Amino acid sequence: MERKSSSEIRRMYLDFFKSKGHVVEPSASLVPQDDPTLLWINSGVATMKKYFDGSVVPDVPRLTSSQKSIRTNDIENVGHTARHHTLFEMLGNFSVGDYFKEEAIHWAWELLTSKEWFSMDPDKLFVTVYPKDQDAKKIWLETGIDPTHIVEVEDNFWDIGEGPSGPDSEIFYDRGESFNNLSDDDPENYPGGENERWLEIWNIVFSQFNHQPDGSYEPLPHKNIDTGMGLERVVSVFQDAPTNFETDLFLPIIHEVEDLSGKKYGVNQENDISFKVIADHARAITFAIGDGAIPSNEGRGYVIRRLLRRAVMHGKKLGINDAFLYKMVPVVGQIMKDYYPEVLKDKDYISKVVKSEEDRFSETLTDGIELLNSIIEETQTKKEKTISGVDAFRLFDTYGFPLELAKEYASDKGLDIDEEGFKAEMQKQKERARSARSTEKSMGVQSDLLTDLKTKSQYVGYNTLKVDDAVLEDVIQDGKLSDEVKVGEAQVLFSVTPFYAEMGGQVADQGEIRNQDGEVVAEVVDVQHAPNGQNLHTINALKPMQSGENYTLEVNRAFHLKVEKNHTATHLLDQALRDILGDHTQQAGSLVEPGYLRFDFTHFGSVTDQDLKRVEEIINEKIYDEIPVTTIETDIETGKKMGAIALFNDKYGKNVRVVSIGDYSREFCGGTHVKNTNEIGLFKIVSESGVGAGVRRIEAVTSQAALEFLNSEENLLKKTASLLKSAQLKDVPNKVEQMQAGSKDLTRRINQLEDKIAKSQAANIGDQLVEINGIRLIAANVQVSGMDQLRQMADDWKNKDQSDVLVLAAKIGEKANLIVAVKDDLIKKGIKAGDLIKAIAPKVNGGGGGRPNLAQAGGSNPENIPAALSEAASWLKGNA
Predict the structure, then answer these.
(1) Selection from 561, 511, 841 nearest residue 676 by Cα
(2) Residue 673 annotated in ligand binding
(3) Is the terminal CB of the chain with fewer CB neighbours within 10 Å at N or C?
(4) Mean pLDDT of the chain
(5) Cα dihedral across residues 230, 231, 236, 242: positive or negative
(6) Which residues contact 304 (CB under 8 A, 6 or more apart)?
(7) Same-domain check for residues 549 and 564
(8) Residue 680: inside a domain, yes or no?
């Protein structure tokens, strides 16, 4: 077996299955599309689910891919083990209702052992099979494998709940006795056990059962093959690497970190962990941001932030105190450029995002240290030796402050941290994240009702919106195939149709179906693609219909034309955003309705009003320029050479439609469009906002809807002018500025008066002085307009020796507000403002807290203020 690079191995795998009639599927974005069950694409099969559950029938039933994936359930193990990763590549070959065990097993053996391909020593290969799957065992024996190298394992059954499932067969590579980390009698010392000697390199799943909702298993209507070979693992075999990290997928990053840190990999075990964490996390962060995810406090963004901060902290352990992770981005790009050239192309943008997040973490780390010092001081004051898990998790969750670093700081002060309590809080957060995710099943139960519909149906809606002789071919009603349509809802297929099926964000056409007598017999309410690609109409049947008969299908023209205008406008918007914001901007979703358009796009940071104005101006300029909109059908490679933009997450067949708006915009698109930009009439942005980490949304209107929007805005302006008694609209801004200036002056005068009132009351609160157990207390109900006045009175109190404890209460609006101040010498005796405020706040149905010398609270029951003040005296009696 010759040494091979990771790029050679990836290409060889894909070429092998290409030679067996498989179509190479490009690696999809890590950000799942239309799948609320997944946070990340976490396997090769995750992108094939629609094929396996039968919701879509692929053009070719044999597929192969090298799919980048992220799994985050074992982040803490990364760096500590030989093969745990957050980002990895999964090589796979898939059969959707085509070949099965015979071919899958023989081809696997051929790829692994053939001199033309991987050329592995057969004596080093072992396989496991499900005990009840004797068919698989028999086929393995046909390959010529040593019979003693086949191990039956009860766990070899792939099942994720409802949907496709079945036995699987795992393939292991024997790395030799030198890798044996277990005693001979250890129960895990066998191929398939938890050990270092036998390395799992491939898993072949024979998907042959439907796991039903009631827990039973039935034969699948269409059996599938799903395999997964971890690229990192198999590369370690070819490169004879002790772990995955000593391969060409990771070493260039590790060498870069060596240069930055001045430390060497392979010398110190603790340092090696940090090298591995940085190398792993740098890859995951780079690819995740490249696919449009952005660091944030939730979902995918939170994962990126956590990985980045973990890597930065390990950099500090190696002595790297400045931002450095962003320098790893081009290194990752160089490693992966053979199959993922987009990383190098976008390296400047990705580096910018990483550098910004590193700088942000540096600031929050300082804030975290301040909070930790406060927690340490409070713990020591209570004469306790352990920082609570709740406080440690608050540090982690709020500031990304790692538990390991908190332990080091605490240890320097002679304190421990309640790690079990920390883990309990972490578990609560994971449960919250799970509950926030969709409860939909990850893969549906496969049904052959729609999958078996092979009727040819021609879509002609690009050229006409009416068809006179469409034959009703298939009818599905009440969950069954039928020859006739009864009154009510049904799904139908026609030999030919002008109705557009929802796709690419464009909503489906609506319209009517008439019989040969011209009577309206049904309303078309929705159109979707059936698994085999036909336009499947959902209709509301007003009269019975019969399969085999001819019908007239007519699309609602006004509805359709409005959608066309908005769809073409999204193409202009897409390109205008690239022009103004940069080429890193990618479409992240769209919706094209007749009344408006919605366009989601990736962008780091907000979009300024000036940029939005320029985008709007560019689009309207293109509309006024009356640019022809043309469409041609070609193959995907020709389309790319033409410069057509392909949506990263979309799958394209052999033939594609390229929509060109002159030389300004060119995209792959199956939607319907205007013939000339002048048909759009007018474009107006209605709103721009953030809808997720690194994803912005623009909503806009065109044509008549744009005019109506502008008229509405003008009416609002006229109403405002009337209220301001402004004779002309152009004078409105000046009138508003005058009102604002007057309002500021009034506010300033009010504040001055309130300060005088507060000072007057502060001078009189001494009349409320009482002495309790030798402690002087002032507890007073005062009249102020806000908490600022209460705080001002507390500040004045500090400068005077009026009492040892101050408690002030005020009804502000419909709320009760409390403030407590305690002198420093009393704090040393254990009397703290925070403790006192917690004791009295419940009296006004409230809560609060603060520092030992100053605390405040609010409550919903101001009528009980006297009781709260009385409670202050009682508390001092019991605690002084």
Answers:
(1) 561
(2) yes
(3) N
(4) 89
(5) negative
(6) 284, 285, 288, 289, 293, 294, 295, 296, 357, 693
(7) no
(8) yes
Q: Which helix (H) or strand (E) holds 866?
A: helix 865-879
Give the SS3 label for residue 42. Answer: coil
Residues 114 and 235 in one domain: yes
| 53 Cβ contact partners less than 8 Å away, ≥ 6 residues apart | 163, 164, 443, 444, 445, 446
pLDDT of residue 708: 93
Residue-wise pLDDT for 454-487, tens only, equals 889 999 999 999 999 999 999 999 888 999 999 9
pLDDT tens-digit readout, 615-636: 999 999 999 999 999 999 998 8
**Contact (CB, 8 A) for 562 and 518:** no
List alpha helices for 447-488, DSSP H. Answer: 448-451
Rounded Cα gap, residues 396 and 404, in angstroms: 10
Is the pLDDT at 763 greater than 70? The verdict is no
Give the span between the Cα atoms of 618 and 636, in whole angstroms.
29
Q: Is residue 804 classed exposed, middle or buried when 0-12, 13-18 and 19+ CB atoms within 10 A define those classes? A: buried
Q: In 677-780, where does DSSP find H-type helix?
A: 703-723, 732-764
Same domain assignment for residues 705 and 670:
yes
Q: Is residue 123 part of a domain?
A: yes
Residue 252 has pLDDT above 50, yes or no: yes
Q: How long is the chain?
A: 880
Residue that is last in its domain, among 714, 745, 773:
714
Q: Please list, in sequence order, all residues whose beta carbon lies within 8 angstroms of the beta carbon of residue 750, skipping any fewer than 6 positions away.
A: 785
Q: Find out whether 567 is annotated in a ligand binding site.
A: yes
Task: Kindly state whether residue 729 falls inside one of the protein's structural domains.
Answer: no
**Tokens 């920082």 sit on residue:** 387
571 annotated to bind ligand: yes
pLDDT at residue 441 above 50? Answer: no
Look at the chain and report how many structural domains it folds into: 5
Judge if 217 and 92 occupy the same domain: yes
The CATH number of whichever domain residue 197 belongs to comes to 3.30.930.10
CA atoms within 13 A on the CB side of 609: 0
pLDDT at 649: 47
Q: What is the pLDDT of residue 647?
A: 65
Reported pTM:
0.70
Any domain includes 443: no
* Range picked from 157-166, 203-212, 548-557 for highest mean pLDDT: 548-557
Q: Looking at the predicted structure, is the pLDDT value of residue 11 above 50?
A: yes
What local confidence, expressed as pLDDT, does residue 438 receive? 41
pLDDT value, residue 687: 93
Among candidates 171, 168, 170, which has minimal Cα distance to 208? 168
Do 605 and 685 belong together in one domain? yes
Distance of CA 527 to the CA centre of its chain: 29
**Which residue pairs from 401-404 have beta carbons closer than 8 angstroms and sit at least 24 positions apart in sequence?**
401/365, 401/368, 401/369, 401/371, 401/372, 402/309, 402/310, 402/313, 404/313
Residue 320 has pLDDT above 60, yes or no: yes
Answer positive or negative: Cα dihedral of 60, 64, 68, 73.
Answer: positive
Same domain, yes or no: 177 and 325: no
Which CATH number goes with the domain that contains 812?
A: 3.10.310.40
Residue after which a domain boundary falls, among 555, 575, 606: 555
Instruction: Tell me how far apart the alpha carbons of residues 262 and 256 are, in angstroms, rounded to a whole number.
Output: 10
Distance CA 355, CA 368 (A): 20
Q: State whether 542 and 600 are in the same domain.
A: no
Tell whether 330 and 288 lie within a shared domain: yes
